[in-house]
Design a protein that fits this description.
By secondary structure, the chain is mainly alpha-helical. The protein contains four helices and no strands.
């Protein structure tokens, strides 16, 4: 693997696709198998595979555990708030 972010894969939506690809990329960069990551996180290898493929979304708690196991920051996208000037 050359360290580049992987190409998109089919998933439930754009945000889900990006998050799942990030988990796969970070796991591979850490040199871990799905089985090894699952053991570190305390979930099944099948669930790791489903999260990476986009069939299931990881809970916030599991995302935190995955990020910790991969020594990665947990970044959650936030909806941008538009400033509406007050009327005077």
């Amino acid at each position: 693997m050359n360290g580049e972010f992987p190409p998109p894969v089919a998933a439930r939506g754009p945000a889900c696709s990006i998050r799942n690809r990030a988990v796969t990329w970070a796991r591979e960069m850490a040199g871990l198998t799905k089985r090894a990551l699952a053991a570190c996180v305390g979930i099944s290898e099948q669930l790791i595979g489903e999260i990476e493929s986009g069939w299931r979304s990881a809970t916030r708690a599991n995302l935190g555990k995955i990020a910790e196991a991969l020594n990665c920051p947990l970044v959650a996208p936030e909806r941008r708030r538009h400033h509406i000037p007050s009327e005077r």
